[in-house]
Design a protein that fits this description.
Layout lengths: L11 H4 L2 H9 L7 H6 L2 E6 L2 E6 L14 H18 L5 E12 L10 E10 L3 E9 L5 E13 L23
Antiparallel strand pairs: 1-2, 2-4, 3-6, 4-5, 5-6
Helix pairs in contact: 2-4
Amino acid sequence: MDGPEPQGETGHLGGGSGLDLLRAMVAGEILPPPAMALFGIELVSVRDGGATLRRKPGDYLYNPMGPVHGSAVAALFDLALGSAIQSALPAGRTYTTLDTRISYLRPVTAASGTLTVTAQAVDLWERRAAAEAQLTDADGQVCATATMTGTVVERPPEGSPEKPNRTWDVSDWLKIS
């Protein structure tokens, strides 16, 4: 097989739990969200109620004052916290973000090395979920922490659109229908 197979309603996207979906992404059976490719973020591992993601910061992400722009860190947190929540949800359920709070503790630069976010779902209710995460640099220093609250909803019956049998490319975002 050359790449991830598209999944219909009976595949990973339609019938499995959130953990099943994320495990299929880690295994390369289905593609992760295109935002991960756009931002250069890798889904490293998932477990029930948790996820670990990483990315290497580059100077192309710097803000006018020098360090990596906070939005690059926020995107990493958003995907990690959301993955932690999704991994704890049963089949047929997903979430939508209500609130994300980030505390930036030290600047991140290209010299920080690979950034790793470890996220864990901390509370799951019928209609709400919460998760927390830490971002560490290559030396293991905590650079930022974050929390997320989400609303738990039914997964739409059509599921996610079928994934092409190729990797996502930034040029996909630039195509006009």
